[in-house]
TrEMBL record:
Family, similarity comment: Belongs to the threonine aldolase family.
Domain Aromatic amino acid beta-eliminating lyase/threonine aldolase: 3-283
Record note on quaternary structure: Homotetramer.
Cofactor(s) this protein requires: pyridoxal 5'-phosphate
CDD domains: TA_like
Protein name: Low-specificity L-threonine aldolase
Native species: Rouxiella chamberiensis
Annotated EC: 4.1.2.48
GO MF annotation, one: lyase activity
UniProt keyword list: Lyase, Pyridoxal phosphate
InterPro entries: ArAA_b-elim_lyase/Thr_aldolase, Low_specificity_L-TA-like, PyrdxlP-dep_Trfase, PyrdxlP-dep_Trfase_major, PyrdxlP-dep_Trfase_small
Source organism superkingdom: Bacteria
Pfam family, one: Beta_elim_lyase
């Protein structure tokens, strides 16, 4: 199957599986897994942060970040469509008693800082205490501009807030900007990096921050069930990905832009700004969307067909695969029956 639903569907290569098989392991809850420790040190070097902590999922890593930044009755400011507000089960509120303050995002994925300033609560017993600004990079495939990140970081220093970045696809952002990852991560206190999307690992995310912050996060990781044992098998896949699969993200970006051009040429309604990284959105009628999904599945293509359809390129999608997708789409438009 050609699976364009998400880059979460990626499968480990034979070389990655070999690295996993050969991994040296220990008990990570005791801090004894040498491969996990090596991964965390490697991520610290890439991000410029003092410490890092390996998690089974990005949702848990983001949750623990919020739990470590905020106490019960505190508040975090977040984008209305951000993943750690809309798509992570309300964990901060349900499990942490942390109040989200969602704000509308700009077209480029940023949260306007004047809106953030207006949303910060006064020091008054009637209000939750505003503690954190949470950003997402990339958001829907959009890369947050470096000058915005710099201004946001300075703004949070001025306002006494911490700044967290949900960096599920932050490696895509670094590749798209053609800068070292540290040029992005210098403008935040903490961040998560997902390893199981475009980087192609089967499992895992990393949370990065100061040593003191990661000490608090380690307690929350244990409490929320994320303390793994011989997890070096998984960390070995992550190390392989960081050493081999980062720069190749450019291929995914190029494929997404090629797909955008081809689908635009056959008359599809591409949502602006198009493919900045590996994510592309298009609009279609609800009636057409309802027919398209099953039609494509019958012919070996998986897409999340909806009035707003998201297509994502990744390590297991080739240009030849996309050529087939375009040819099938043309056939569907000619004869959807």
């Amino acid at each position: 199957m050609i699976d364009l639903r998400s880059d979460t569907v990626t499968r480990p290569s034979e070389a990655m599986r070999k690295a996993m098989y050969q991994a040296e392991v220990g008990d990570d809850v005791y801090g004894d897994d040498p491969t996990v420790n090596a991964l965390q040190a490697q991520v610290c070097e890439l991000t410029g942060k003092e410490a890092a902590l390996f998690f089974p999922t990005g949702t848990q890593a983001n949750l623990v970040a919020l739990l470590s930044h905020c106490q019960r009755g505190d508040e975090y400011i977040v984008g209305q469509k951000a993943h750690n507000y809309m798509y992570e089960g309300g964990g901060a509120a349900v499990l942490g008693s942390i109040q989200p303050q969602p704000l509308d995002m700009a077209e480029d994925g940023t949260i306007p800082l004047d809106k953030v300033a207006a949303a910060i609560k006064a020091d008054d017993i009637h209000f939750a205490r505003t503690r954190l600004l949470s950003l997402e990079n990339t958001h829907s495939g959009k890369v947050l501009p470096l000058d915005y990140l710099q201004r946001a970081f300075a703004f949070t220093r001025e306002k006494g807030l911490a700044l967290h970045i949900d960096g599920a696809r932050i490696m895509n952002a670094a590749v798209a900007l053609d800068v070292p990852l540290g040029d992005i991560t210098r403008y935040c206190d903490t961040l998560t990096i997902c390893l199981s999307k475009g980087l192609g690992t089967p499992v895992g995310s990393v949370l990065c921050g100061s040593r003191e912050f990661i000490q608090r996060a380690n307690r929350w990781r244990k409490m929320t069930g994320g303390g793994m044992r011989q997890s070096g098998i998984l960390a070995a896949a992550a190390i392989y990905a960081l050493e081999n699969n980062v720069q190749r993200l450019q291929e995914d970006h190029d494929n997404a832009r090629w797909l955008e051009q081809q689908l635009r040429a056959i008359g599809l309604d591409i949502v602006a700004p198009g493919a900045q990284t590996n994510i592309l959105y298009l609009r279609q009628s609800a009636e057409r969307a309802a027919r398209l999904g099953p039609w494509m599945r019958e012919r070996g293509v998986l897409i999340s067909s909806a009035p707003l359809t998201r297509l994502i390129t990744h390590i297991n999608i080739s240009r030849q695969d996309l050529e087939k997708v375009v040819e099938l789409w043309q056939r569907f438009l000619r004869d959807p029956g």
